[in-house]
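pipeline stage [seq->struct] | target=Short-chain dehydrogenase | organism=Nocardiopsis ansamitocini | residues=309
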Amino acid sequence: MTRPGKDPRKNPQKNELAVVSGASSGIGAATARALAAMGYHVLAGVRTDSEADAVRGDGIEPVTLDITVSEHIEALARRIADDPERRVLRVLVNNAGIEINAPVEVLPLSLWREQFEVNLFGHIAVIQELLPFLRRSRGRVVNISSVGGVAALPVFGAYAGTKFALEAASDSLRREVSAHGVQVVVVQPGGVRTEMAARSGDISLGLAAEMSAEHQRLYGGLINATVSSNTAFLERAVPAAKAGATIARVATTPRPRARYTLGTDAAFIIPLARFLPARLMDGILAMSHRSRTSKPLPAPASESAGSPS
């Protein structure tokens, strides 16, 4: 894992706000807690009252925030503008996301669009609304991408597509606002043990169960191999608390780099994807799946669909 420098602040700043979207669980909740421990007043985006109760704590104020709902984003902006203690917005962590994986040919267009609405357009909407606050404070945007934003694994086409797009938008934004004193940083996690990551395999298997017989023949083994590989890998993945602590340090380090990898897998795969010829990378990924493709496609454990988190 690439480590940012330690936060130099010995006395946490109580007059600053941080916004974390997708803060109900996993990476978002862990990041909110880590920033609150540094002294920020964190506006933690959640969707339900039960999620609000779960994340609420010292320095953490839950706010209703589905980033695909413009009224929620506008209400968040009003909350920042009308802050009773006149605190400035210093940090925006765009973390909300969903992951629904299936082969390009099989995944319905409605699910392609849903992932882009949450994983890309929702973040852009939040940035557009909150950027004026960050200009005033010379604050920072932290966009949570993925190893999938650099290396698109089979079956991950839609999810990776959203992350590739977020990477490009982040580059443009960074070059547009650096002269205004706003910093833009991308974090590229590999495997992290979260509810979303654990649920994605079941979602893939649920979609696979609805495929035609021909698509079962063409893609069943590949889907099984991908789900099996990811399930095994999650047992060794970075804990969410560790990921959140790293993101909080990235959000507060004085002179950040443009990008940080998170996890040994991301630190290994991303350079390979950037520098190896595409066909060689294809071969490496194919070999990693080959030992699992002969197994039958298991029945899904659940049929839950992803939602903004």
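stage status: PASS
auto-comment: The chain has ten helices and nine strands. Residues 16-193+239-268 form a domain with the Rossmann fold fold (CATH 3.40.50.720).
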